[in-house]
Write a structure and sequence with these properties.
The protein has 3 domains: 112 residues, Acyl-CoA dehydrogenase/oxidase, N-terminal domain (Butyryl-Coa Dehydrogenase, subunit A, domain 1, Orthogonal Bundle); 110 residues, Butyryl-CoA Dehydrogenase, subunit A, domain 2 (Beta Barrel); 146 residues, Butyryl-CoA Dehydrogenase, subunit A, domain 3, CATH 1.20.140. It contains 11 helices and 10 strands. The chain starts with 7 loop residues before the first helix and ends with a helix. The chain is α+β, with helices and mostly antiparallel strands. It is 52% helix and 15% strand. The protein has a 4-stranded mixed sheet with strand order 1-4-5-8. A 4-stranded antiparallel sheet has the order 2-3-7-6, with helices on one face. The chain has a two-stranded antiparallel ribbon with strand order 9-10. Keywords: FAD, Flavoprotein, Oxidoreductase.
């Protein structure tokens, strides 16, 4: 793995996340997956280690608003368990709209608790008829004096039911389409706000995925994020900032699968010698390692660009998520192949890694949507020349 010239402070974050993951997550990851148990105890350890506020400015109790540090931690956690990794990362996704569009009063109210790990956040965008097409939202927020009444259902929300703070995208004016969307902060426990059952998933099973159900949920206008009608922008800018985190999760899952593949190939003896001595296996491992390093390089580059104050990184953010998640799926599939029958068994972790990898190609915008976004950006850039 290249050094990437990361700072000593960032190296400490990376090493700390790795240490906790190896010592505390590794012994329980199979059990968490099997029982589909939310990793509260592990999240408390991340909180005690001050890892929950890596993406939050020091002013609000965080590490200093570093996307790079957040990606490094997410990668190391996901290298051991993708389910724990997304639980950690999804809180940043839920809090990012507050960081990007919240008033100082809103930031002072919500970000310190997220930074300390006292509370988790979640992001409510997806609906039954609005996933890749965010303009198809049907959850409404109807104005009622100084309040808004929210009705509708959000689907497949990571950290749903466990988080305390929710950034929710609604429609306040159906006649304006995407320009009629408005974002709100909704707190767990608000009357009219409940949750559906915990979903049974292929992978990332220890993470909680639930519906958010709004039935005449009344919230004050002070809970609005940004201006009325800015909801679609809130959602898109949030995803631009957080997609490198999904890239980091995917890189971590892929690296974990490569680690297991190399270990197994060194120990597995066939035809009188370890299979790692076979050129066919070496070529598979070489391709896996190359794809991971290329993905990591792009994820890190985009994270550094965001931290440096770059204003336009939509295309590159999509690229990072795209290449890393495709790599994760390919590498974990090859890992199962290298381990053969053992790779297909739950006793070995690559089976879980392959299941966990698949979702990285789907959430925060499917990879087909990422390609659409990249293509549109190229068209726009070409027209400006």
């Amino acid at each position: 793995m290249l050094d990437y010239l990361i700072s000593e402070e960032h190296k400490m974050v990376k090493e700390l996340a790795r240490k906790i993951s190896v010592e505390k997550v590794l012994p329980v990851r199979a059990e968490l997956d099997e029982k589909e148990e939310f990793p509260w105890e592990i999240m408390k350890l991340f909180a005690e280690a001050d890892l929950c506020g890596l993406w939050i400015p020091e002013k609000y109790g965080g590490f200093g608003q570093s996307v790079m540090a957040f990606c490094l931690a997410t990668e190391e956690i996901s290298r051991i368990c993708g389910g724990v990794g997304v639980t950690f990362a999804a809180s940043a996704l839920g809090g990012a709209p507050i960081l990007l569009f919240g008033t100082d009063e809103q930031k002072q109210k919500y970000l310190p608790d997220l930074a300390s790990g006292k509370k988790l956040a979640a992001f409510g965008l997806t609906e039954a008829n609005a996933g890749s097409d965010a303009s198809g939202l049907e959850t409404t927020a109807k104005k009622d004096g100084d309040y808004f009444i929210i009705n509708g259902t959000k689907q497949w929300i990571t950290n749903g039911g466990e988080a305390e703070t929710y950034s929710v995208i609604t429609i306040t004016d159906k006649n304006k389409g995407a320009r009629g969307a408005t974002a709100f902060i909704v707190e767990k426990g608000t009357p009219g706000f409940t949750f559906g059952k915990k979903e049974k998933k292929m992978g990332i099973r220890c993470s909680a995925t639930r519906e958010l159900v709004f039935q005449d949920c009344k919230i004050h206008k002070s809970q609005m994020l940004g201006k009325e009608g800015l909801g679609f922008i809130v959602a898109m800018k949030t995803l631009d900032m957080t997609r490198p985190g999904i890239g980091a999760q995917a890189v971590g899952i892929a690296q974990g699968a490569l680690d297991e593949s190399v270990k197994y190939a060194r120990e597995r003896v066939q035809f009188g010698k370890p299979i790692i001595s076979l050129q066919a296996i070496q070529h598979m491992l070489a391709d896996m390692a190359t794809q991971i390093e290329a993905s990591r390089a792009l994820v890190y580059a985009v994270a550094k660009a965001i931290d440096s104050g770059s204003k336009d990184f939509t295309k590159e953010s999509s690229m990072a998520k795209l290449i890393a998640s495709d790599t994760a799926m390919n590498v974990t599939t090859q890992a199962v192949q290298i381990l053969g029958g053992y790779g297909y068994m739950r006793e070995y972790p690559v089976e879980k890694m392959m299941r966990d990898a698949k979702i990285t190609q789907i959430y925060e915008g499917t990879n087909q949507i990422q390609r659409n976004q990249i293509g549109l950006s190229l068209i726009k850039e070409s027209a400006q020349k």
